[in-house]
Write a structure and sequence with these properties.
The protein is mainly α. It is built from 3 helices and no strands.
């Protein structure tokens, strides 16, 4: 978990590659303000489109529970980025 990120976004009319590029750019700037100088991103990313019949809440809960399953926290509320609008 500490070496990757899970993000759920609704694209609308936006292209996934542009959304990912924007996210990477914003996070890189944030990390640089905290003094990080090493490379942050790999060249590629893995995406998964949700089918219309998939339960968004179940997928969001799976993503939010990753830090708990990875053993980064004992309670999900202890992870600072745990929240999602689908919960």
């Amino acid at each position: 978990m500490p070496d990757h990120i899970h993000v759920m976004v609704k694209l609308g009319d936006r292209e996934l590659s542009r959304v990912v590029a924007s996210l990477r750019s914003r996070l890189t700037r944030t990390f640089k303000t905290q003094g990080r100088t090493s490379p942050l991103w790999q060249r590629a990313f893995h995406d998964r489109a949700l089918r219309t019949d998939e339960n968004l809440r179940a997928v969001a809960r799976y993503i939010v529970a990753n830090p708990l399953r990875a053993g980064l926290v004992n309670h999900i509320g202890d992870y600072p980025y745990w929240n999602a609008i689908w919960l």
